[in-house]
């Protein structure tokens, strides 16, 4: 683990809002596990200074066989504007892999992954790992509209049962998503649920996991400075074993946490 | 402490052989302590976690995150905000107390060569003494007394904003421990030299100059402060000239060593602090951007000295050249 200057192999928009970056990375970086993140030294976007801090981003694909690390991102702020300015051949300084990733129980018959937008990029490698280990996957992909649904192909290729829900089709509201989760548990025997990023989906996942007796984890985001557990800026609130509310570092104890311990915000 | 008549070392011999970087003596003396080199972390920007990216034995010293005498939760998020050339933080010194540090963190430093400096803070003078006694255990090399964090009280007031409070807090620690004690000063004062002298009079073995500058940032779209605690401490390259000025003023005002702290990014920044009168420096914010910044600076300092024919880095300390004309006379006299 350390910071690596990695050549950009590709960096292209995949839809109106999302970009896909492929880096050639050393073996250590390629060993990133699902749910871990890299801390990115984003370059200056055109006409702007470089962002002062690094930016954390979860790994979308880490492929030791190809020596590549990939990110799927939305151009939403200063850091991602800088990322979108990188061209093949440019060098990108990435620190990592960092943090604690997802855990899979091989005894599970099936897991549900539930996320929206770029949250799906975080869950895609988990779905691939699960499929490779013989655990079935039901992937519920939420988006504004059908053309905005991310990771449909990569989830399907991994063997996941893919269910896309969208705002424009009126299929993404919590009641309808809850019905899909109940069906995945009742009919396909799902035993765990994994989610990422969204407060609404966290609350939904927690409620259904309690109701249906599911295990699960959530990957959380928070603004970071060091990424190494030193500065204590990226804390979020959790309910500890003794019922007390406590702060934990998203970069160090996370970014993946036990589903029921995370407090919604 | 600083000799006004000190001359810079002789320039490198023309065409002659320069000392090898590996042969440069980087060691410095900090009161009773000898450090292998003058580079150490600033409190709050370091933990044993950094072992994942660097060889901790390379550092001049370790400086841990401030421990509070009593456990504290810390401030609401957002706890940091970035600017073009620096960062604001208002972490709020979350701490699980002295006993937790001794049990959970101290063992990580066993077997490492650099001395461990524990940063200690408290809400009242009365709390400083017992906490200093409690942390004076084997494995702790010195106590940095954080009398300066701007987040401690409303409006960012701190002990080190007043000479009498500085003297009281440092005296309490001095009476409670035989370890070397360093006073970490705040830059949020009009006359830092007076604070430096109060700390020295109370028995401080060294000064750290300085903590962060009280600052604020507002999101102009939401019109909300960008820190959860409204105000916070500013650090990073933007503050370096201010901290350098204060370190210079303190070095001129006291006989104990001064450790410079603020905005170090390059080896020239390190050299500047040393020349200004600092015996060592602390690196903070840059480690967040570049985790390997401290070992890089140690390597670069050796090469920087070698290229200038400087065999011992401590020979740089306080070699700022002041001319005997009216504009410099005040400093020559001090």
Polypeptide structure, described:
The complex is a heterodimer of chains A (265) and B (334). Chain A is of the alpha/beta class and 265 residues long. In chain A, 23% of the residues lie in helices and 35% in strands. Chain A has helices at residues 27-30, 78-84, 119-132, 152-157, 174-188, 199-212, and strands at residues 2-13, 18-24, 37-41, 55-58, 61-63, 68-74, 91-98, 110-116, 136-143, 161-166, 190-196, 215-219, 235-239, 245-249, 256-258. In chain A, the strands form 3 sheets. Chain A has a 7-stranded antiparallel β-sheet with strand order 4-3-7-1-2-6-5. Chain A has a 6-stranded mixed β-sheet with strand order 10-9-8-11-12-15, sandwiched between helices. In chain A, strand 8, helix 3 (119-132) and strand 9 (136-143) form a beta-alpha-beta unit. In chain A, helix 5 runs parallel beside helix 6 (199-212). Chain A is globular, with a radius of gyration of 18 Å. Chain A starts with a strand and ends in a 7-residue tail after the last strand. Chain B has helices spanning 98-104, 125-135, 163-176, 192-201, 240-253, 267-276, 285-289, 293-307, 326-333, and strands at residues 28-30, 33-35, 39-41, 62-63, 67-68, 80-83, 86-89, 116-121, 142-146, 181-184, 206-209, 213-216, 218-219, 224-225, 231-235, 258-261, 280-283. With 334 residues, chain B is an alpha/beta fold. In chain B, strand 10, helix 4 and strand 11 form a beta-alpha-beta unit. Chain B has 9 helices and 17 strands. Chain B has one domain: Aldolase class I (TIM Barrel, Alpha-Beta Barrel), CATH 3.20.20. Helix content of chain B is 28%, strand content 18%. The interface between A and B is medium-sized, with 25 and 31 residues.
């Amino acid at each position: 683990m350390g910071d690596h200057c990695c050549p950009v192999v590709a960096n292209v928009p995949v839809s109106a809002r999302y970009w896909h970056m492929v880096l050639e990375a050393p073996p250590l970086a390629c060993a990133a596990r699902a749910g871990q993140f890299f801390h990115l030294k984003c370059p200056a976007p055109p006409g702007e200074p470089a962002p002062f801090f690094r930016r954390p981003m979860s790994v979308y694909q880490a492929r030791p066989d190809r020596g590549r690390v990939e990110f799927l991102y939305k151009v939403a702020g200063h850091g991602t504007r800088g990322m979108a300015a990188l061209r093949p051949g440019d060098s990108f300084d990435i620190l990592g892999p960092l943090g604690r990733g997802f855990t899979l129980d091989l005894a599970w018959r099936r897991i549900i992954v539930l996320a929206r937008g770029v949250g799906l990029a975080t869950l895609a490698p988990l779905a691939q790992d699960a499929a490779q280990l013989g655990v079935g996957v039901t992937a519920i992909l939420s988006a504004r509209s059908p053309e905005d649904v991310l990771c449909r192909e990569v989830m399907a290729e991994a063997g996941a049962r893919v269910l896309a829900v969208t705002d424009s089709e009126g299929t993404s509201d919590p009641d309808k998503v809850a019905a899909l989760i109940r069906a995945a548990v009742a009919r396909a025997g799902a035993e765990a649920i994994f989610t990422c990023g969204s407060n609404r989906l966290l609350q939904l996942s927690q409620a259904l996991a309690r109701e249906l007796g599911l295990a699960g984890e959530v990957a959380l985001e928070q603004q970071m400075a060091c990424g190494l557990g030193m500065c204590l800026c990226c804390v979020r609130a959790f309910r500890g074993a003794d019922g007390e509310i406590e702060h934990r570092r998203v970069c160090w104890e996370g970014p993946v946490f036990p589903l029921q311990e995370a407090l919604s915000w | 402490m600083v000799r006004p008549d000190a001359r810079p070392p002789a320039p490198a011999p023309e065409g002659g052989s320069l000392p090898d970087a590996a042969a440069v003596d980087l060691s410095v003396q900090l009161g009773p302590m000898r450090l292998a080199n003058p580079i150490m972390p600033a409190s709050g920007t370091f933990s044993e976690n950094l072992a994942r990216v660097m060889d901790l034995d390379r550092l001049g010293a370790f400086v841990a995150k401030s421990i509070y005498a009593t456990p504290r939760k810390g401030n609401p998020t957002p706890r940091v905000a970035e600017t073009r050339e620096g960062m604001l933080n208002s972490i709020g010194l979350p701490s699980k107390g002295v006993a937790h540090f001794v049990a959970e963190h101290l063992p990580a430093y066993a077997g490492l060569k650099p001395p461990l400096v524990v940063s200690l803070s408290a809400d009242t003078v009365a709390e400083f003494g017992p906490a200093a006694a409690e942390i004076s255990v084997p494995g702790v090399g010195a106590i940095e007394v954080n009398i300066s964090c701007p987040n401690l009280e409303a409006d960012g007031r701190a002990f080190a904003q007043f000479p009498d409070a500085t003297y009281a807090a440092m005296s309490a620690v001095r009476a409670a421990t035989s370890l070397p004690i360093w006073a970490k000063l705040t830059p949020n004062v009009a006359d830092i030299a007076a604070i430096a002298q109060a700390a020295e009079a109370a028995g401080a073995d060294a000064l750290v100059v300085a903590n962060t500058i009280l600052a604020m940032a507002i999101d102009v779209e939401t019109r909300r402060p960008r820190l959860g605690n409204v105000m916070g401490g500013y650090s990073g390259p933007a503050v370096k000239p201010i901290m350098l000025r204060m370190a210079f003023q303190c070095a001129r005002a006291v006989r104990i060593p001064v450790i410079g702290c603020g905005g170090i990014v390059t080896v020239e920044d390190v050299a500047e602090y040393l020349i200004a009168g600092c015996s060592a420096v602390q690196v903070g914010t840059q480690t967040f951007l570049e985790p390997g910044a401290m070992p890089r600076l140690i390597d670069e300092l050796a090469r920087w000295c070698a290229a200038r024919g400087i065999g011992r880095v401590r020979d740089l300390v306080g070699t700022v050249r002041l001319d005997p004309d009216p504009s410099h006379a005040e400093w020559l006299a001090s």
